[in-house]
Structures are given as structure tokens and as C-alpha cells.
Amino acid sequence: MSSRKSTFNLHPAEAGEAGVDEAGRGCLAGPVVAAAVMLPPDFHHPLLNDSKKMSAAHRGELRVVILEKALAYGIGMASAEEIDQINILQATYLAMHRAIQQLKLSVDVLLIDGNRFKPFPGIPYRTVIGGDGLHLSIAAASVLAKTERDLIMENLHEQFPHYAWNKNKGYGTAAHCKAIEAYGYVAEHRKSFKLKSQQLSLF
After folding, report:
1. What pLDDT is attached to residue 9?
2. Strands (E), the chain
3. Of the N and C termini of the chain, which has fewer Cβ atoms inside 10 Å?
């Protein structure tokens, strides 16, 4: 663990606090993945920030640090099939709840990135718009969720190389959309998502 303060001046974690974030909500394929992370109050790392603002290399480096130094963490997901069955908003809540269920320590409060959440039984929560750029615990959750989902999509690429999920990670890039038009959908595609359409927003 670095003794230096975060370059980005994020709020430090507090005792009993778990940050929660998701990745992959707007994709055409693959699961939505969520992570919940409880960090030590003295945790700092100069690279930790909103995962979308970090390079893949830095996210990979932070993933190792977070898995090693977190007091507790959980990773949950909802499959493409579940997304089609209950919609992406409810599937995101489901993934978050599955992540929270894995935490091995008692949680006093959940910090949720965004402005909406389905309450988790027995634990108070607070939503924070842009929380992955404000709180270390949420930033750590964003890194775990993003890196976990990237690994899933890279593994799925081996089964379905036509769609180049190792590069686009299931997002609706022009190349991915052309591949769908050429080869059709596979089980990992979200059938309820329309090509080039706007997806239901959680935030």
C-alpha cells in the first residue's frame, strides 16, 4: 500500500463503509458486473480514480492492490439472459446485491455510485452521483467491476471470435454491430437491446 495520498483527492474510506459500482450496463453482450469494496480507513494509492479515467494497465495494477488490501470485497453479476428477462436496470440492482452478499464483514452504510438503488435488506445506503470520482471505496469497486468484466469478455472472445470482444468488450462499436449483422446473435448477446439504440439509464 502506498503511503502517498491519492493524486485525485478522493474521500478516504470510513469504518463500516462499502463502496458499490457496476460495469457493462450499456453493452450489447455479456453480463453486467458489480463490485462492493470495503477499504481500510488509511488506504491511499496515487493511481486510484474512476476506472473510466484510468488506463487498462493501471486498472490491472490497482486490481491486484485492491484484492490484496481490501478488508472485504464481493463481485456479482447478472447474465445477458437475466438482463433480457428483468431489464438492465433491475439486473444492475441484482448484480449489486449479489456483490454485497459476498462481503464478509458487517456493513454500516453502502455508498452507491449513481442516483438510484434498490435497498439491500438491513443496510442503509447513500447514492452519490459521480461517486467513483469522489470516494475511494466506490473507485475501488469501479476498478474491480471493470477489470472483472473485461476478463469475462476476453474469455468469451475465445468462444466467439467474430465479435472481437477482446477489443470492444461487448459495447456497440461499429465493428461489433457489423459482426452481429453478419453472424447474428449468440447466447451472450442481450436480445432485448436494439442495435444503436439508447439503453435504459440507471443514472
Report:
1. 75
2. 17-23, 32-38, 72-78, 109-113, 125-128
3. C
